[in-house]
């Protein structure tokens, strides 16, 4: 079948404005969009720039917007698009060339949530072990391949007024360490996430979950972080009430033991 691709093109070194270029490729219905892009670069136009690596939905490097929806080119079959496909770079990020975007801002936000285990105690004489029950809550989050499709699709990230929002991908990784039984910095992580540009920036619009190529329930995991913060604050406030100093009559300072 003959597939027509309308591809976003922009080379900042020579182009004043972005434009779209049309290509035609012979493809089988079961071919992937990535196969079509490779044929264009190999057989028609070697100047076309896009990222790819493994080609099997593991590396996450070939994220792009395909017919208006962010996804991985290696996972999208020609038969799912029909005879014409519009291919654009991931939104939100600056374009380096054609379909290649600058992901440095994405990884800066990712590293800001400290995506590693923090141990405050001395190292044990063996590895820090986890039971199957401990690891089970993390199984969804650890599938993340940092393709940036979720962050690119997030309306909060797309809004210039909330451009400082850390994004759903970073929050998924934050969930992974906040709920890891081996991590010993829960208080620090909660304080770090309890901000408007972090977990509270999420408006629960589900766009991130809809596009995730690994089918991670992104919005649900962010909701678990919100609940953990809420429960931690509630327990802290209840503790302050329980341990409130008593007056000379033995009544708590909040008056919980006094009569009307």
Task: Describe what this molecule looks like in 3D.
The structure is a single chain. With 260 residues, this protein is α+β, with helices and mostly antiparallel strands. It has 2 domains: 2-101, Ubiquitin-like (UB roll); 104-242, Alpha-helical ferredoxin (Fumarate Reductase Iron-sulfur Protein, Chain B, domain 2, Orthogonal Bundle), CATH 1.10.1060. It has 9 helices and 7 strands. The chain has helices at 33-44, 104-112, 132-135, 149-153, 155-158, 168-178, 186-193, 207-211, 218-242, and strands at residues 2-9, 19-26, 63-66, 69-72, 84-88, 95-97, 100-101. The strands form 2 sheets. The protein has a 5-stranded mixed β-sheet with strand order 2-1-5-3-4. A two-stranded antiparallel ribbon has the order 6-7. α2 (104-112) packs parallel to α6 and α6 (168-178) packs across α9. The chain is elongated, with a radius of gyration of 24 Å. The model is unreliable at 241-260 (pLDDT under 50).
* CATH superfamily annotation of the largest domain: Alpha-helical ferredoxin
Distance between the termini: 82 Å
Number of helices: 9
* Unreliable runs: 241-260
Please identify the oligomeric state.
single chain
CATH class of the largest domain: Mainly Alpha
| Total discrete domains | 2
Q: Report the sheet-strand fraction.
A: 5-15%
Which secondary-structure class do the elements indicate?
alpha+beta
Order of strands, main sheet, comes to 2-1-5-3-4
What sort of overall outline do the alpha carbons produce when their principal axes are compared?
elongated
Query: Which topology of the largest domain does CATH recognise?
Result: Fumarate Reductase Iron-sulfur Protein, Chain B, domain 2
Using only CA atoms, what is the Rg? 24 Å
Mean pLDDT: 90
Q: What letter string, H or E per element, gives the SSE order?
A: EEHEEEEEHHHHHHHH
Major sheet: 5 strands, mixed
Total strands: the figure is: 7
How helical, in percent, are the residues? 25-40%
In the CATH hierarchy, what is the architecture of the largest domain at level 2?
Orthogonal Bundle
């Amino acid at each position: 079948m003959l597939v027509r691709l309308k591809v976003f093109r922009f080379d900042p070194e020579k182009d004043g404005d972005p434009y779209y270029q049309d290509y035609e490729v012979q493809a089988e219905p079961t071919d992937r969009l990535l196969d079509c892009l490779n044929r264009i670069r190999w057989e028609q136009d070697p100047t076309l720039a896009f990222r790819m690596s493994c080609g099997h939905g593991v590396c996450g490097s070939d994220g792009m917007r395909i017919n208006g929806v962010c996804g991985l080119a290696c996972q999208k079959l020609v038969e799912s698009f029909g005879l014409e496909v519009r291919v654009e770079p991931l939104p939100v990020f600056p374009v380096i060339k054609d379909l290649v975007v600058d992901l440095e801002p994405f990884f800066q936000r990712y590293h800001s949530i400290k995506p590693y285990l923090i141990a405050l105690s001395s190292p044990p004489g063996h590895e820090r072990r986890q039971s199957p029950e401990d690891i089970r809550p993390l199984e969804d989050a650890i599938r993340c391949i940092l393709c940036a499709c979720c962050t690119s699709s997030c309306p909060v990230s797309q809004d210039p007024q909330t451009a400082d929002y850390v994004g759903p991908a970073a929050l998924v990784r934050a969930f992974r360490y906040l709920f890891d039984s081996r991590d010993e910095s829960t208080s620090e992580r909660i304080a770090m996430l309890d901000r408007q540009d972090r977990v509270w920036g999420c408006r629960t619009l589900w766009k991130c979950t809809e596009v995730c190529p690994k089918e991670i329930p992104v919005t649900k995991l962010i909701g678990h972080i919100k609940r953990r913060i809420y429960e931690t604050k509630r327990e802290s406030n209840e503790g302050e009430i329980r341990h409130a100093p008593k007056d000379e009559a033995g009544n708590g300072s909040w008056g919980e033991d006094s009569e009307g």
